[in-house]
Records
---
Amino acid sequence: MNVMEFVDYYKILGVAKNASDEDIKKAYRKLARKHHPDLNPNNKEAHKLFQQINEANEVLSDPEKRKKYDQYGKDWQHAEHFEKSKESRRQSTNFGGQQFSGGFEDDEFSDFFASMFGEGSGKRSRRKTGFRGGDYDAMLELRLEDVYTTQQQVVTVNGKKIRITIPAGVENGQKIKLKGHGGPGHNGGPDGDLYITFNIVNSSPFRRDGNDLFKTEQIDLYTAVLGGEITIDTLGGKVKLKISPATQNMTKMRLKGKGFPVYKQEDQFGDLYITLQVKLPNAVSDKEKELFTQLAALQSK
Amino acid sequence: MQSENLIAVNEFCTGHHIDVTFISTLHQFGFIELTTIEQANFLIIDDLPRIEKIIRLHNELDINLEGIDAIIYLLEKINSMEYELRVLRNRLKLYEEPQR
């Protein structure tokens, strides 16, 4: 059986046990201004703190609740009957195997609060009677190669399957909005939105800067000196590259339009920058040594 | 009445337990756009997150509209700086990752 944790509301608000109503109000206002979710977007810690502050204020600003809390609070251990309802209240939201939290939808009171004062006894009405449904945030991990082309994926949000289109060229850390896939609206209000943040993992041979790609290609000494043609892999397929005679080590070449697709700009691509690294032979045969010696002699003349 | 992109101000106010005059004040302040169809005012659904944020800041933190205006400006500034930070972080990877 889980032991329910005691919540020290005085500590949360940073006030003494004998704090006056005015002190509590002041402390709550100050902390709420600091940790309000609207002032701390994308900060889950602040959201959590705000919930705790709200809960503490809910109890300590209500004389009846405060009295009960002061009287029984510390001795409150665990309520077996509550464990079941707690499980049913906890809605975990799965998104492609990853958990994500809803925006204002999940600002429930703690188990401790619910067990002491009963479910639904909170006045979180200011939020609960909201109109538009809450927004959900989700994280989706994709490979660089995956976002080279526009693709569709089916993901599960709150048990509902949603087909989403991921436009080619999405950047690492970019957030897209899926309208109406958040929490349900209240009182005839529209549903919230689902925000997906992309975590693009790059284990490809390319480095990416926006729409441009960078890659190092090795060429042998003879191709560098005499010139020739090499075939390189791009994300869009193989490309032939002409090497001029006497190409220097670390020469950079730009392949226009062979980079990454530009987000939501059809048929537009960045460039691919190739750095040519001249590979010297690891070992030379007697014959090669003889020929290199002749070349060296020619150079010194 | 609710069209695909609009929501009646009355309906919104009922849902939020706020007075219609508050929406008019927000409109006068330049916070929101109102669309009038047959003498009825409508809000653009895409504006609802912004309007609800204003309502929350006003109701939950007792911030006046001038203060909210400043907050929204600063939040937008933070947002654009976060975007810049993301782009720069991604660019930094170019130099931190081993050469490919």
---
Amino acid sequence: MLNQRAQGYWVILASFFVAYVLAVLPMPLWLQWARPEWVALTMIYWAIALPHRVGILTGLALGVGLDALEGAALGQNAFALVVVALLCLTLYQRLRVFSLWQQAGTVFVLIGINQLVCQWVQNLDGVGARSLLFLLPAVSSALLWPLVLHLLRQVRRHYMVA
Amino acid sequence: MRLLLAILLSLGLIIADSRYNSLETTRSLLDTLGTPVYWVADLPLRLRDWSDKHLQSRPRLADDNERLQRENLVLQGRSQQMASLQAENVRLRALLNSTALLRDDVLVAELVGVSPDPLRHQLVLNKGTQDGVFVGQPLIDADGLMGQIVEVSAGSSRALLITDATHSIPVQVNRNGVRAIAEGTGSLSTLEIRHISATTDIEVGDLLVTSGLGGRFPGGYPVALVSEIERDPGQTFARVLAVPSAALDRSRHVLLVFSTADEQGE
């Protein structure tokens, strides 16, 4: 029993590490604004699939890590991911029975909220976006949701993460 | 409740980091922990560089070698005069009772990553406190000034580029010494030059160099070329835009500048 719990956890951590790498992967300049929010997407999946393992404190820790990586004010992504985690924990039962595209729509809203919170904090620093381009990651994340869902679901079943 | 704690903690962090800058050691530690992430993310580019170097045809390599040798010869020829020019400069400064000449040493660093947020122009470098890097240290590439170091950890550091919206640098026009401030606009190809009145002598094509005022950046390094001047008679200041000299989005190797005051002079 203890063995199974420990095994489950490293899979989740590994998926977060991969999400971090994808979050900082060098991209051509013209694609920069369209980078999906990989860390948020991964957290949303695990929060819906295993709400008792991944929740608010995971969001906080992930957010602080992402802030350090991005060079953002510490706490910016932390706050945003805490809000997203909270919403996932409130809605996970409904989200599980949504169709794929309904889920993608919800992901769009969730990531949109993530982006809005980040912009709010960035504006405190004076580095806010000047156009609505900052919402583009919400679109790209929502489009990638079916892929992320499918992939992580396979991983979860294969490694029997619980 | 956990939620309340998490929200308070994250808001607390935001305030502490934005307003009071008190979390430097925490950031430093997190940067050190985050190095593997950037290392892995850098692998595709490193692989491509490696294959460029090792899988090239021999004739191509021979050509490159010859071209580099020629370039090296030209550069060395140009720098032959440097020693005597520096000595003359020191003598003239002593004659004028000016302050001591600053001699700059450089350290080569490699770019490990770029901040993914398009609004923050930050670079991650592979040199840190163990190489003597310090906060505020200027960064240059082969063509001009790139920015300054804002965070250091043991083996890596973060630099802010001059084009970041929160960055300003004192500059002067190389031609006539007119002083101004060059501010980042958030766009990699544009700097805005402030405090240029409508009657100031400045033209498109002028080279702007660091003025050395403010003590942070040593003087004389090229910063940008003036690209656009808009003189509106109704406004006090002209709107001047400039293009940075450094290849901000293309340089993979950068130089960290260590300024040391010369013993002679003064």
---
Amino acid sequence: MKHTQPQLDTSPEVSDEIRKTTCYMCACRCGINVHMKSGKVSYIEGNRDHPVNKGVLCAKGSAGIMQINAPSRLKAPLKRVGPRGSGAFEEISWDEALEMATSRMSHLRETAPEKLAFFTGRDQSQSLTSFFAQGFGTPNYAAHGGFCSVNMAAAGIYTMGGAFWEFGQPDWDRTKLFMIFGVAEDHDSNPIKMGLGKLKERGAKIIGVNPIRSGYNAIADEWVGITPGTDGLFILALIHCLIKAGKVDLEYLNRYTNSPVLVNCDETHPEHGLFLRDDDGKMQVLDRTSGKPVPFDGKGVKPDMAGTYRNAGVTYRPVFQLLAEKYLGEENSPEAVADRCGISAERIRHIASELAFTAFEEEITIDQPWTDFRGEKHDKMIGRPVSFHAMRGISAHSNGFQTCRALHMLQILLGSVEVPGGFRFKPPYPKPPEAHPKPHCKVTPGAALDGPHLGYPMGPEHLALREDGSAARIDKAFTWENPMSAHGMMHMVISNAHAGDPYKIDTLFLYMANMAWNSSMNTKAVMEMLTDKDENGEYVIPNIIYSDAYSSEMVAYADLVLPDTTYLERHDCISLLDRPISEAEAMSDSIRWPVIEPDRDVRGFQSVVIDLGARLGLPGFVDDNGDALYKDYADYMVNHQRRPGVGPLAGFRGKDGQGKGRGEVNPGQLDAYIENGGFWVDHIPTEAQFFKPWNAAYQDWAVERGIYDSIQPYVFNLYSEPMQKFRLAAEGRGKIQPPDHLREQVKATMDPLPIWYPPFEGTRVNEAEYPYHALTQRPMAMYHSWGTQNAWLRQIHGRNPLYVSAEIWKEQGFKEGDWAKVSSAHGEITVPVLLMEALNGKTVWTWNAIGKRKGAWALDEKAPEANEGFLLNHLIHELLPPKGDGLRWSNSDPVTGQAAWFDLRVNVTRTDAITASEPSFGTIKSPIGQGPNEIKVGAK
Amino acid sequence: MTSLPTETAKKLGLVIDLDTCVGCHACVVACKGWNTQGYGAPLSDQDPYGESPSGTFLNRVHSFEVKPAEAPAQLVHFPKSCLHCDDAPCVTVCPTGASYKRAEDGIVLVNEDACIGCGLCAWACPYGAREMDQAEGVMKKCTLCVDRIYNENLPEVDREPACVRTCPSGARHFGDFADETSNVSKLVAERGGFDLMPELGTKPVNKYLPPRPKDQAVEEFDILAPLLEPVATDAGGFLGWLDKALERI
Amino acid sequence: MHPAPSVIIFTVLSGIGFGLLGFLGLGFPSVTGWVAFAFFAIAYLLAVGGLLASTLHLGNPQRALRAFTQWRTSWLSREGWFAVAALLIMAVYGGGLVFFETSIIALGWIGAALCVATIYATSMIYGQLKTVPRWNHWTTSLLFLGYSLTGGALLSGTTTIATYLLAALGIVQFVYWTLGDKRFVDRGHTQGTATGLGGLGDVRMLEPPHTGTNYLLKEMVYRIGRKHAQKLRVIGILMMSVVPFALLVTLDAGHLIGAVVVLLHLAGAFVTRWLFFAEAEHVVGLYYGK
Ligand SMILES: Nc1nc2c(c(=O)[nH]1)N[C@H]1C(S)=C(S)[C@@H](COP(=O)(O)OP(=O)(O)OC[C@H]3O[C@@H](n4cnc5c(=O)[nH]c(N)nc54)[C@H](O)[C@@H]3O)O[C@H]1N2
Ligand SMILES: Nc1nc2c(c(=O)[nH]1)N[C@H]1C(S)=C(S)[C@@H](COP(=O)(O)OP(=O)(O)OC[C@H]3O[C@@H](n4cnc5c(=O)[nH]c(N)nc54)[C@H](O)[C@@H]3O)O[C@H]1N2
Ligand code: SF4
Ligand code: SF4
Ligand code: SF4
Ligand code: SF4
Ligand code: SF4
Ligand SMILES: [Mo]
């Protein structure tokens, strides 16, 4: 029979126009092409020219159209009219809202600026928000890094001047062996997937170290289903094997790290454990030819890591010797750690041998001459094609900082950082710890703070302590409890403010963080703290201002809500001053611009901050006459200059728009960005693309681009001298010393060489009572709480079961469809369970932030997210279980204050069938009503 | 129309690499986004903000756990859309001729203007590749982005399916299986591409590439073991070795 | 498969309707005039009513006429043609009986054959589906024909034949169930073949592609509990076969008994037809771990 078929138009018009901007369905910041039909967004796809995603787009990014149309969008400023937490609000005008905010804040500024606590979530305008807070004069400012992954970031900076994601990336095109530790998704969402795809295409090997074998780990060639919290042990055992076999890159260590630097080994000496330095403060190494200490960076120096130096009765030994001695100890052998890690000794050895093989037998070279900072010329670039990536799986533990340090140490010992095939920094990194600011906390009523809030303390003198030694900051960052809390400790703000410890505050100003729900530990108590009243019937935290774009759980707890725009409706600046989008081979930044206009009475939060700054007359926001300097954020992005010639945007500077990194203000700058697809890229010269910390060509280029003001080559800190300084203080040396109850903790945890100690919670609870580990993972198709309002994404992840290992499943006699009680030292939840075999035997887990509060996000109160969905957060306390010393220790890493989400220990038992997760809370009144019953996107 | 073309000039389809798919659902949503504003009626969603949200999608990503006898369990993310079968039962059952397979390239499509929404084609498809749109009452399925792949309003590089273009890990490949030299034919040949439920005789055009062998490390151990021989064998110990090693550099 | 009321009503009623028409075509009962009118009216109400019910499950019933176009390949299309042809021929035949008191025997036979063909075509809509192994077997056609003829015999008052048919149908239904219960497994469809991963090891769905529901889940991944099904099978077979058979064998067939038997059978047929759908496992369930 004859086949007939209809005529098709296979070339329909695609859209009227494409507007190129930057995605913000998560913090990865991919470039997007927004297709417009009849003035409306019709389709969003990846921008092929964009340095981050090169055309691809993740599920969230593609679902952006449902975010900008979500019924949960706030419509106008809201003033609370019912009790806090009820959700009863009244819409007010912006004038009234800003007046409410400024009248209270200006009084605070004149009297006690520290009574304003300004904390922001995963925004990308920290250089503006911190500038505002600094100008205001409060020491109480930070973003979310403390509860997120400061361990990873800080360990990277302290060890090698940068860590993963924003700071660097594997050399995806050349690496032959890639190990990924504790990553479910990460911020570098698309680039990691693109990278993994490249590895697969080339047949390179991937080893996934993760208790859970999903996502990236599912496609790994080898899965190491490690027991949570033991990566440090595993890594140190790998290091043990490598050192023992001499499989370390001695030449690299000698040249580019502090391995040869001489350490004072006299335990009685006031400078015990510190480096031998000359009068200029330069670290000294032992010169192999002369046998004398010489500055580490001298031309032609051949350091001797095998020797010892004695002077005035003090023995100095090179770092490498201390390091080798420490890790050669049998306690670091594979056999000694195998059981605790849940990995056989044979397997550990095998992985060590593979690392050795790939690094040293599969060496690669690029025929590219370069010159190092000592002036020495190299005729080629030698690469060790082993690379690593890691994220919260190793950092969100109370031993995370040291574990992250250990991982960086492993990379460095293999000589695989900033070499072809290894791990590479992205501008403005590398940047050594000493080049970062130090924390500032000096409050003067009516004046700005004495400097930036956050930074990298290099010793006790940089702690944020008041005269009496108490914490200067409401979150107690940079105190002896967590001396190197480089990102602040947002997760402690509400409980400290509620307790009035270290002092009471007046206004809690939050932006883009759902603190009444998924970003808090101990969510129930946090909600209580936010609504708690004192004996006078006043709220204990008197005033809460919150900016959100959507009807989140947190909105209900604010007294004043400042509604933000969605990401397609505003200007944003993804700045090199903040969290840039550079690549290892290029510096890059980008913008968002209003590709559509808001149809509601909302304002971009950054513009609101600029308005507030002007109304309050803050320095940097008003001119000498007190008039506003900037009309809005767009104006600020173009005209603000941090240092002469250096502003929020690095591209298209100068009158002619040709300035790169440096240059005068260019009034046409935003147009140039838009013209260019919303971003700007400047490629690093070929000669400067590797060995960046030591490469003279890179250093010169970086200065030219305004990344540094002067060249700053440095060596990697296998041994961390700042940590030793804190430890010395704990041992009783120096002016600033920890309080007695913290001495032991500081001594034990601030080891200048990476160590492992058991995660705190595990040591505080009875193992038999709480035998299992409980974890969360990010679903790739959801972004924290804010994905749920998205009608497409919530069909993919609208519920979250607790995945239970086969071992536990059997132990507890679970059957399909069962529910379980999950209890921790802190609380109990009731949840549905599901069997997963590709899972560490002692572990249970669930997707993060799927559970929702009834009434939030413009969802029906019967929504599965609010009934079956659940949060693990109820089981996690911001304080550790009491240990009988009368003190409640914070559930954080003792070095950085990183929230230890993954230390959680639980028991899981079967419970009789029920149909809703527990605990559940009352319904919040939705301030914006509810969504429609049917949608037809793109209907003609 | 309902009868199948005896032969199609091209056999366009997808290769899905199960060794590379990380299960991110990017292809699912890109497909929804493109197709809801493209070919035919929009892909509607019911109860989108309510108790039991559902909607029409043309591509879905499943996850399976595979437990080998001797090795740890594996997880395989498994994307699935229409396989554009050569012997497509969904076409022959269709009473209206709305469902058809294109003679020029083998794409199986639904002519929505002719579809009565009887659902029979979805019953006939073994793979769950067809979903009836609840708002329009017409059958929906993967169009292989027929309105992209030949679209002269798109730049040449973009003339590929939305799901392929968006896949971050490059696990999806598009091409002509009738051409032995095409990327997809080569991948299938090299990596042992296979059919889903071959026992049903649908002769799918789309092929799946199997996960590569995993967790085989310990077996190779013997070759690599010598690399870990301790260096400190003589009296000089580790420092002695270090001294000598430094001499060499 | 989802036991959609419209489809159950359609297949049961139109099946019986065409069955009755078939018997009328063959001259059982041999009636004319208003009595014939009554019989034909019942038959047409059932057959056409059933067909109309079936359009209720269409997404776009206004285009239903298009369904006649694909008779070459589509059983649904063929069913349409046969049904229309049967209804037309039988209208002529019936017209003869009612208005002219004449029986055009040849036409009656042709009409009866078309009725059988219609039912066969209906059965093949299901029987052809390799994706539903329980249906994909000649017993499906036998079953449909069995229900149709039994119903037709009962309604036409052809009691003796009806008695035999009731017994036979009970057996066919039992055989259909017994053979059907194993077929999915026998055909070898597993999560392993569905994913092609069976060679690597045991395959098990971990996570569904969406926690929300969809058309496929509602339409094809309907599952009923074994115990529940077992209970319904017993009820169904008792009502549609065993009890009516026993009544007919043991009691004198009067109008009352006749009515009770018909109603019992019909109710039983609805139960078993519900099960016919509810118990049918579509292979797509494998992708959803079912
Ligand atoms: N159990 C457990 N808990 C965790 C984690 C875990 O792994 N396990 N992870 C922790 C980590 S790392 C993080 S970073 C936190 C994240 O937790 P949060 O920072 O609270 O993140 P979101 O849920 O995304 O909420 C951010 C808020 O921003 C709002 N928002 C979205 N877009 C905009 C916008 O354009 N403008 C404004 N003004 N607001 C907007 C959203 O509506 C939402 O209310 O969760 C932490 N909580
Ligand atoms: N799609 C999506 N992307 C996101 C986010 C999102 O919500 N959705 N959130 C963003 C944010 S704020 C962040 S902080 C990043 C975080 O990105 P990730 O670091 O990938 O964060 P998690 O999802 O918490 O994943 C932690 C992983 O560590 C594993 N793990 C837990 N404990 C251990 C351990 O002891 N050892 C090892 N080896 N592994 C362990 C867990 O199994 C899990 O796979 O993702 C960002 N990207
Ligand atoms: S990873 Fe996805 S959500 Fe995040 S910015 Fe990129 S496309 Fe957007
Ligand atoms: S986009 Fe690619 S990696 Fe992601 S689920 Fe689809 S096929 Fe897999
Ligand atoms: S996959 Fe299903 S819908 Fe697609 S051609 Fe094959 S049978 Fe038809
Ligand atoms: S639903 Fe439409 S395409 Fe499918 S068989 Fe029926 S008429 Fe044909
Ligand atoms: S080819 Fe097009 S229609 Fe088919 S799954 Fe991919 S995006 Fe969807
Ligand atoms: Mo985070």
